[in-house]
């Protein structure tokens, strides 16, 4: 029975089961809420997972298009992470991922969303982040992670760094979350190529809007005028 499986999943994840009378409407709603929570989180770090992050990004794209406020998307990747796994083992790598996740989460505001979007990759969406603050926020994140000392085995302490790429949501175009992620990723590749342990942010927002995004603006304008 699917409900039994759902309860097993929740129990295994250490989720709290609803206190209401079993099988009552409130109890079933509690189980559904707990399942939703479980399916939106990354099991290792407890951060928002990729699926849920993509939904948060789409919501933010809509909000930016409506409000005209700017928002920053940061793509974050741990530097030379393969070497951590290869030298100290996968379990040590997992400890590093958890420590970085915790550090990133500490630096941001409650309204920001930090997600684990891949193995050693994170995404952060920062609503209402003015372009003049973007570089400062990215630098604060980079610095906080560089200060981490992760004990991966008794007496074995590792320091790690991250690279960050950032792109602002264009305020005047109804972009897509995918294109926004691609732009942040492009800056991340630049940060890696320029030596890692650094943040690269798009500087000229307008000039970097792709032809595809301009096409989407045209499509939206046409629809709106119909
Ligand atoms: N421990 C651990 N390792 C993971 C996990 N997911 C992915 N990886 C490993 O992360 C590593 C990613 O390495 P690469 O993408 O090659 O890059 P890198 O070594 O971080 O180097 P740069 O990104 O170029 O600085 C691979 O060795 C993956 O096996 C995970 O959940 N836990």
TrEMBL record:
N-terminal signal peptide: none
Ranges of residues in domain GGDEF: 69-204
InterPro entries in the record: Diguanylate_Cyclase, GGDEF_dom, Nucleotide_cyclase, Rev_trsase/Diguanyl_cyclase
SUPFAM superfamilies in the record: Nucleotide cyclase
EC number per UniProt: 2.7.7.65
PANTHER family: DIGUANYLATE CYCLASE DGCM-RELATED, REGULATORY COMPONENTS OF SENSORY TRANSDUCTION SYSTEM
Name used for this protein in its record: diguanylate cyclase
Organism: Roseateles oligotrophus
């Amino acid at each position: 029975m699917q409900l039994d499986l759902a309860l097993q999943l929740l129990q295994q994840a250490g989720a709290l089961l609803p206190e209401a009378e079993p099988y009552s409407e409130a109890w079933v709603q509690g189980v559904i809420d707990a399942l939703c929570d479980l399916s939106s989180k990354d099991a290792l770090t407890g951060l928002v997972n990729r699926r849920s992050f993509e939904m948060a990004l789409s919501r933010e794209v809509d909000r930016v298009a409506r409000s005209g406020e700017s928002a920053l998307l940061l793509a974050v990747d741990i530097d030379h992470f393969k070497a951590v796994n290869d030298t100290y083992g996968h379990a040590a790598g997992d400890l590093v991922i958890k420590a970085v996740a915790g550090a990133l989460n500490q630096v941001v505001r409650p309204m920001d969303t930090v997600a684990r979007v891949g193995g050693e990759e994170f995404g952060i969406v920062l609503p209402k982040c003015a372009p003049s603050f973007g570089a400062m926020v990215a630098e604060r994140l980079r610095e906080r992670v560089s200060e981490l000392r992760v004990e991966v085995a008794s007496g074995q302490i590792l320091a790690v760094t991250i690279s960050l790429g950032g792109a602002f949501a264009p305020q005047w175009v109804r972009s897509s979350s995918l294109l926004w992620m691609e732009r942040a990723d492009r800056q991340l590749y630049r940060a890696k190529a320029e030596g890692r342990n650094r943040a690269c942010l798009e500087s000229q927002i307008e000039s970097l809007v792709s032809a595809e995004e301009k096409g989407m603006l045209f499509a939206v304008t046409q629809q709106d005028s119909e």
